[in-house]
Amino acid sequence: MQWRDQLDKRNFIFLMANGALYFSALAFIDANVLIPLFLNGLTESPFLVGLAAGIRSIGFFLPQILIAGWVTGAQNLNIFQSRLHLFTRTILILPVLSIWFGFSPTIIVTVFFISFTIFAFGEGMGQVSWMDIFSRTIDKSHRGKLLGMMQALGGLGALVGAFVVQRVLVSPEWVFPNNFALLFFLALFLLWASIFAIRMTQDPAKKDADKRKVSARYVVSHVPKYLGDHPTFRKMLLVQVLMGFNIIGFPFYILYVQQTGSLPAWLIGFIVMFQIIGQVLGGLLWGYLSDKAGNKKTIMTTLAVNISVPLWILLSGQVTGLISIVVTLAGFLSLGMVLGGWLGFVNYLMETTSEEKRPIYVSISNLFASPVALLPLVAGAFLKIIPMPWLFITIAIIQAIALFFAFRLPDPRNQESTGVPTFLGHPEPARRPKE
């Protein structure tokens, strides 16, 4: 690999380590398997399961618009992010302690939601600064490789974590909910290690930093202008929002498998494991496609896999025995692959926006994703009257529509090399927004 400079090399290593440790930690606090089972075991409430999924997504997306303008001119973002996460991640110790001290389920759930909300919003606030460091210090020739290796290494670490999860959940020495408290506690160690990695990165000084800063109010009020200046971004945003509807099913796939009677305790760990294997495969595939084939094709391939996820889960409820287990594992393998589907969108945005306005466009894309993040909460409230299969079929249809619009996306690389856009018709060429 050819390094642009020593900063490129240093930040490649530590950003990759930061992400890999973070993804490894998620094996112990998995939002698609473990948290739904944890909350369902305490409350048997689909609404609260959907609420947790909504908080995780809203907390990640919404805060970004509030600090995007500040990040464009802020200095020493590695220090800011490490201090932020030291607080917002450490607070996850509170639900662990509430379980170990034997508090009532009501108190445990309340403490969990408060801590989980702070954690989720902290991840959202840190995302813009992470992307700013990434986009300014990592050469574009290996951005896809960094993101892909980050997910792949994180997935390998999480595989070890999934084995631990499986052993803990079947162990007679760790009964519910103490088994989940142990898993959450193990997640904290890896989250703390990832904080150290981001602190070891370097954030070079920005030219005209004070002139770059804009307020959150300015960013929000000028969203129509930013969208008007960047037609390519608008098209990508439509596809990204439609793809975001896949989040509706994430917390309910495991509950559907549980309700159909094909979820013995020993299988939970293997489901987490196959989901992580999917993340490893997805990380390698999306990183390779991003660097070699382009980010438009990466987005399209991600959507094709996305369509298959609810169909696999539906099929698992229609078959029995070993076939049901195989189909279930295939569904969560595919789910793991699409969890890294953001890679294509991130690199597509990097290719089509200027450095100065990049954090703003990243936050705008996440702002539009915020309403979609509420859908698991709405779905959880209506699942008593709406069958889960209907929900899953709707998700597959929306993903197919997103794939159709993805065909119409301009391809920045084809435009750069030939000046002629490809695929269906002649879509508008990708270009940087007006300054």
TrEMBL record:
Subcellular location, principal: membrane
Gene3D superfamilies named among the record's database cross-references: MFS general substrate transporter like domains
Residue stretches spanning the membrane: 12-35, 47-72, 84-101, 107-125, 146-168, 180-198, 237-257, 263-286, 298-315, 321-348, 360-383, 389-407
Keywords: Membrane, Transmembrane, Transmembrane helix, Transport
Protein topology in the membrane: Multi-pass membrane protein
Pfam family, one: MFS_1
Statement: the UniProt record of this protein carries the keyword Lyase: no
A GO cellular-component term linked to this record: plasma membrane
UniProt key word Transmembrane helix: yes
Subcellular location: Cell membrane
Coiled-coil stretches: none
UniProt xrefs under InterPro entries: MFS, MFS_dom, MFS_trans_sf, Sugar_transport-like
Domain Major facilitator superfamily (MFS) profile span(s) in chain numbering: 232-435
Source organism, top-level taxon: Bacteria
PANTHER family per UniProt: INTEGRAL MEMBRANE TRANSPORT PROTEIN-RELATED (PTHR23526), MAJOR FACILITATOR SUPERFAMILY MFS_1 (PTHR23526:SF1)
Record protein name field: Major facilitator superfamily MFS_1
Phylogenetic placement of the source organism: Bacteria, Bacillati, Bacillota, Clostridia, Eubacteriales
